[in-house]
Write a structure and sequence with these properties.
Strand order of the largest sheet: 4-3-5-10-6-9
Mean pLDDT: 91
Strand content: 25-35%
Structural class: alpha/beta
Shape: elongated
Distance between the termini: 52 Å
Low-confidence stretches: none
Number of strands: 10
Order of helices and strands: HHHEEHEHHEHEEEHEHEEH
Length: 300
């Protein structure tokens, strides 16, 4: 009889490609991964892993069993989802991931509401950029992720996921109060063609969106400063070091020396939740989506 937890370990190794990656995804130690795999090899009587430089790779038998493991675990997920749906109770474990502004702007109220309404539900959460969060849900490391795309740049969405809209988040341009356009009621992005920009890290989804959007308007942006968090970006703007796009969700108080002005042709991000289709009937997923929508209604 194949042990389900050992199959889960093999599946994680196949998806992550390394012992350390599997350990992180399963929230266990690397030695625990190695022990589980040694036991699984004894159970099946075949070598499933082979050394590959400093790491390991799956043998032919390992890949074959990993393919079966993925299908078995998916069916187990469906069975658990169906049982939870039949019982109609919000129980068990729910692992959430979201990009930083959603964690700050939505999770405190949403998770607190879930814990109050469903004390038998165990909830954990982690900050994660949208692309990584989608992959983490596909891999089964997380049950639900809050992700975003921009009005003119969709986030690629693999097959096998279900999504639900949470809220549309309008973004303004933040500038020093001494800026030429700080007195205006509305601005256009083209108005800042000659300004230094404060933006996100290279390769991040929001940074790539900003570069794409400005260039589509004939502007080659001068990126002067990069910061992951919006409060840090606003602090740099307040020091007179540039301008930035400032979404409203999770923004908090605008620091002294900064004015935010709406964009005439509205700039917004679409925020939504995603989860695996085989978990679609879980009451905990549905409860989380409703809690997120309720929190969004109060936050934006």
């Amino acid at each position: 009889m194949l042990n389900l937890e050992r199959l889960r370990t093999l599946d994680a190794l196949a998806r992550h490609g390394s012992v350390s990656g599997a350990a992180e995804g399963l929230h266990i130690t690397t030695s625990a991964v190695s022990q589980q795999m040694s036991k699984l090899e004894r159970e099946v009587g075949q070598q499933l892993l082979a050394k590959n430089g400093r790491g390991v790779r799956l043998t032919d038998a390992g890949r074959l069993l990993a393919d079966h493991a993925a299908r078995i675990l998916s069916q187990v997920e469906v069975a658990q989802s169906d049982l939870e749906a039949q019982r109609g109770q919000v129980v068990g474990e729910l692992r959430l991931a979201a990009f930083p502004t959603a964690v700050r702007g939505l999770f405190p109220a949403a998770v607190a509401g879930l814990r109050s309404a469903h004390p038998a539900l165990r909830i954990s959460s982690r900050e994660m950029e949208p692309e990584a969060a989608v992959l983490a849900v596909i891999r089964g490391d997380y049950d639900l992720a809050v992700v975003l795309d921009w009005y003119n740049k969709p986030l690629p969405m693999p097959d096998g996921l279900v999504k639900a809209s949470i809220v549309d988040d309008t973004a303004d341009v933040a500038m020093p109060t001494t800026h030429l356009h700080a007195h205006r009621d509305e601005v256009d992005l083209e108005d800042f063609a000659d300004d230094d920009w404060v933006t996100w890290g290279e390769g991040e989804f929001c940074h790539e969106w900003l570069m794409h959007t400005l260039r589509s308007k004939g502007i080659e942006p001068r990126v002067a400063h990069r910061a992951e968090e919006h409060p840090t970006q606003l602090a740099l703007v307040g020091a007179g070091l540039g301008v930035c796009v400032a979404p409203r969700l999770g923004r908090g108080p605008v620091p002294q020396g900064v004015r935010t002005v709406p964009v005439r042709q509205s700039v917004s991000r679409h925020i939504y939740a995603v989860w695996r289709a085989d978990a679609d009937r879980r009451p905990s997923i549905r409860a989380a989506v409703e809690a997120l929508k309720s929190a969004a209604g109060k936050a934006v």
